[in-house]
Amino acid sequence: MEVPMLQGFKNFLMRGNVVDLAVAVVIGGAFGQVVNSLVADVLTPLVGALGGVPDFSALKLGPIALGKFINALLNFVVVAAAIYFVVVVPMQAVQRRLKKEEAPAAPPEPPEEVRLLREILEELRKKA
Fold first, then answer.
1. CA 78, CA 73: separation in Å to the nearest integer?
2. Residue ranges covered by each domain of the chain
3. pLDDT, tens digit, 9 for 90 and up, residues 27-77
4. CATH 1.10.1200 fits 4-127, yes or no
5. pLDDT (0 to 100) of residue 89
6. Where are the bilayer-spanning segments (predicted)?
7. Which of 12, 76, 102, 127 is 20 to 30 A distant from 93 in Cα terms?
8. CA pair distance 54, 66, nearest whole angstrom
9. Angle, helices 44-51/66-83, rounded to nearest 10 degrees
């Protein structure tokens, strides 16, 4: 005999959405590490080389850690751009392509009774 609460938990885990969400979280974490490395190890030194300061985290305006904010802002912009160009744009292209392939089908021909009723209606309108 199985406990109903455990059966509900098992059903919850076996739904496809939970597995998809788990995969998305794992992939998102790995993607976040790649983007953080890109920002910290590639973009920040490039931008810092232009301004003479390769590490923004040391920038402070009094007690305010302005450099950490600049790093976080740069990280956000890179993540948003990557998601847009790697996920959103290709998905929109696929959706447009699928929409074009789904040509609007011609409406099905009405049954014989409906056609006869329409013909009768036309004849009655002509006589009126």
1. 9
2. 4-127
3. 888 888 887 787 778 877 787 777 776 667 777 888 888 888 887 888 788
4. yes
5. 92
6. 12-35, 69-91
7. 76
8. 14
9. 130
